[in-house]
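Subject — a protein and its fold
Encoding — discrete vocabulary of local shapes:
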Amino acid sequence: MQAALFDNAALMIMLVGALVGIASTLVGTFLVLRGVSMLSDAIGHSIVFGIVIVWLITHQQSGPVQIIGAALTGLLTVFLTELLVSTRRVKKDAAIGLVFPVLFSAGVLLINLYARDVHIDSHTVLLGEIGFVWLDTLTLGDYRVPQALVWMGTMTLINGAFVTLFYKELKIATFDEALAKALGMAPSLLFYVLLLLTSGTAVAAFDAVGAVLFVAFVIVPPATGYLLTDRLWMMFIHGSLVSIASSISGYWLAVFWNVSIGGMMAVMTGVFLLLAFLLGPRYGMVAQVLRRRGQRRVNEIRTLAVHLYNHEDGPEQWAENVTQALREHLLWDNAKANRVVARSREQGLVECRGQSLVLTEAGRDMAREILEPTRNGTGSLKTAT
């Protein structure tokens, strides 16, 4: 019985973490692409003000009213930020840094003044405790379901529906706002709706992972997807997979090391980002190093082909087109010269006739292709090395 309860609790915890990550990825992808991902940090902090204001008005600590009311605070954060930027006295990053500390501080003060005896704690809002989400349940039919699972599932569906319905408009507005305006797509309205959903996701997530860890889910999985693909729809897939993998691996590592579950989930998103940064198939550091090394080898072969072609059929051919001469003309040491000659022979570009290096027809074609742009109207491809 205890094992079954533990397994059910573990499943709920990992599922809630995955839903937070997926819902955050759906909106965070566009924030990352727009270069305003740190707005999620501002929203994540300022919703404390919205949460306590909604409680003072309605005395509700959760539910759709709390989500909508606190989400509007996120829009207030963006509106005040844009208002400051419009004065042209401060830049956007400074405006964000001015607005959200004020709203967050006001929220904390209101909690201390009017909500001391209510279960609204600024520490919980910031850090959450996903390990206990399975204890706070509500009844759906004949089942007791964690509230965090219900609200995160709802926000995931809403975010997914919004992205699906307005995918084309969001894509154009993100990459070419001027074109979106010309086509009458109201990119500013789309952006504010996106931020409203970001705020709603943050409010729904604060009981589970907290506002600070929510920021990690908004930024890191989409950024990981950005390192792995150039296609927008694939960014959603990669980000969602990273969120799921981070939730599962983060939970089990947290249990093994007896540390914060939500914190370990966020750490795992960073681990996957690091892996993408190092091992990504196109933009990863390893791939770039291998690509540069491969290009360098290609350039060395091309250089050898041009050198041999320039001295081919000339009186100095038998003295210049030898491995020893490459050190003097191309500044290669013997080991490098031998390596380049060996690769050229393997590719069928060069043949050895005694001590001399002779281009094959394929090698001549390569040299002509390289030298063709340097004709300068002379009609001759031959140049001096």
In short: Residues 376-385 have pLDDT under 50 and may be disordered.
